[in-house]
């Protein structure tokens, strides 16, 4: 039976390098059905208890939550804004956690981050690794790709041999 991967970049940038990285990573798994989500398709009002009590939980939050529920593996690549999650991701996360605090529904999850800088989004990746298990993510591995523009090529993938070896080691530990 073909396994399903849901992958997304935790950014609403139209040219998100994290969406590129999540997409690339999903395609490293052979014989999997892959669905790439775009956070722009799940834009909702900024979460507040007042908005929830007045209008309920938006259908888009239910849609996102239900998509995660169809996955055999979730791949998230985090963009870093001021050392933390992007507002786009945090807002979706806040809304979906109101459906079920275990937003990731105990699904195997691979956490990634990349950035143009030398730290590769490592601050947000550490936050995610610490927080998401409480939200039902079964974290199977994590990887930070520093200096995206120097270390990644759209056709070839990770072009730095040492980084690619580290990445492949993590990918090889994930049973799908």
TrEMBL record:
Gene3D superfamilies the record matches: 3.40.50.360
InterPro entries linked: Flavoprotein-like_sf, FMN_Rdtase-like_dom, NAD(P)H-dep_reductase
UniProt keywords, alphabetically: Oxidoreductase
Pfam families reported in the protein's UniProt record: FMN_red
Superkingdom, taxonomy of origin: Bacteria
Keyword Chloroplast annotated: no
Name of the top EC class for this enzyme: oxidoreductase
Presence of the UniProt keyword rRNA processing in the record: no
E.C. numbers: 1.-.-.-
MF terms in GO: oxidoreductase activity
Domain NADPH-dependent FMN reductase-like as annotated: residue spans: 4-139
Record-linked SUPFAM superfamilies: Flavoproteins
Name the record gives this protein: NADPH-dependent FMN reductase
Native organism: Flavobacterium jumunjinense
């Amino acid at each position: 039976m073909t396994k399903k991967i849901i992958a997304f970049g935790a950014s609403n940038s139209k040219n998100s390098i994290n969406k590129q990285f999540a997409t690339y990573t999903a395609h490293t798994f052979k014989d999997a059905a892959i669905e790439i989500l775009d956070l722009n398709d799940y834009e909702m009002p900024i979460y507040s208890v007042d908005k929830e009590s007045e209008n309920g939980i938006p259908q888009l939050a239910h849609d996102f939550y239900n998509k995660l529920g169809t996955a055999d593996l979730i791949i998230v690549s985090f963009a870093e804004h001021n050392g933390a999650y992007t507002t786009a991701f945090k807002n979706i996360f806040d809304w979906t956690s109101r459906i079920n605090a275990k937003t990731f529904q105990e699904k195997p999850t691979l956490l990634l981050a990349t950035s143009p800088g030398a730290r590769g989004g490592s601050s947000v990746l550490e936050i995610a690794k610490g927080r998401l298990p409480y939200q039902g993510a079964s974290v199977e591995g994590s990887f930070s790709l520093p200096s995206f523009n120097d270390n990644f090529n759209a056709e070839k993938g990770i072009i730095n041999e040492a980084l690619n070896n580290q990445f492949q080691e993590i990918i090889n530990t994930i049973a799908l």
